[in-house]
TrEMBL record:
Residues 36-255 form the Histidine kinase domain. This is histidine kinase. Residues 1-32 form the PAC domain. It comes from the Bacteria. It comes from Pedobacter cryoconitis.
Amino acid sequence: SPILDDQGKITMWVCSTTNIQSLKEEEQRKSDFVSMLSHELKTPVTSIKGHVQLLLRLLARETGSEFLGKLNSSLSRIDALLLQLTGLIGDMLDLSRIDAGRMDLKKDRFFIDGLVTEVVEDFRLSHQQHFFHLTIDNNIEITADRDRISQVLINLIANAIKYSPSSKVVDISVALAEDEVLLSVKDYGIGIEEKDQKKVFDRFFRVEGHNEKYYSGFGIGLFLVHNIVSRHGGRISVESQRNKGSLFTVHLPVL
Ligand code: ADP
């Protein structure tokens, strides 16, 4: 800031600087810690999951007693919880990859309609109480990271299920529109108010009020989805109404 004399002339300048180096180092340490922790957690959790699945397979050969029935249902529950845990660890690893600028895409050429069908089939198997309506334009070939696009779809469909406590219907579609492919996931759940619609793609954002109590999560999924779609040169949009439902549409270039 300039310091002026009686005539309004500058007599001196006052400068203030803040050293943000230590803050940056602190951020880096936190990010390294999250990355290391996620890696350390991943190995034992993967191993526990392998053992649980082995036990489930062995149990499937045995028949009869009430005890075995209880053991089986307990192990199935553990298996489902481990799946949730591996998903969370994967998300944490992805976050630290993004922070470190190491989220690389492995691009391939593949049929997007085939991938969407596969993902929806998996959901049909794991969520037999739900109805997944699929509408597809066939033979749309794109160049993209297949696993990452699959992750985008899984996240959107999992959210559609999670945030629709009183509806069991999810509509999924793949459509070609000029030089874009549109992937959409529509639910008939709790919806998102207009003021929150832009924010849902922010890191750690969760809609206040109804969420924390009833729906588990950390507000990372849509941040990752947005990041992956942007890295493919695409975009994602949301249309929604409270208590009517939400429609998420991913636009990807057809290259
Ligand atoms: P999480 O579900 O783990 O909280 P996400 O990043 O996937 O994190 O979503 C961010 C927030 O956006 C959620 O907490 C929820 O409030 C809102 N949201 C996401 N998808 C839907 C949906 N299909 N219907 C209603 N709200 C949603």
